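Q: Could you fold this chain for me?
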Amino acid sequence: MALYQETTSVTAARPVLRSVPGHRNDVYPESPLPHRWSARAAGAVAVVVGAWGGTAPYIGHALHYSPDGSATWTWNLQHGLLSLLPGAVAVLGGALLVAIGCMRRDRDSALHTVGLAGATVLLGLSAVWFLIGTSVWPIYFTSHVLVDASPVRTFADLVGNYLAEGFILAALAGIAGSWAVRSLHGRSDWATLL
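A: Sure. Below is the predicted structure, expressed as structure tokens.
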């Protein structure tokens, strides 16, 4: 049985598709909210990406990957502000998404919506800082973020330590944001969330 019936009218040049009423296998979701496994998977990816972005400058030398030329576990302001802080914020946002995915009841509650919005903000902030932090750093400090190397190596270091994390976290923030906005759709008490 088809999900749609084709009907034509005298004035229409193309057929019009209309859904068959009472069809059991509707493809429309029951809820505009994310499936629990989707939120858990997005949160797990955010935790892994944030953990790598936060610890890469500290453990990179042990893996023969040290874009700034520092030794393993070198604690300095640059590593703390450009990597550890946004990585920790991303891990926190990812953990919040995982916690939202683990909620069994009240998926359409205000707590669920606020949690999705909070995860969106945390992931968005960490993404922005990963993306622009290396450009802002030389404005305030005289040290360079990366060691001098060939243009290809410099680009690979930027992608591996900052840009890839930023783009992945920005995509996850967009997904979580769309879930948060869709969770407000059709709610009569949305104004009480503000």
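A (continued): The two ends are 46 Å apart (CA to CA).
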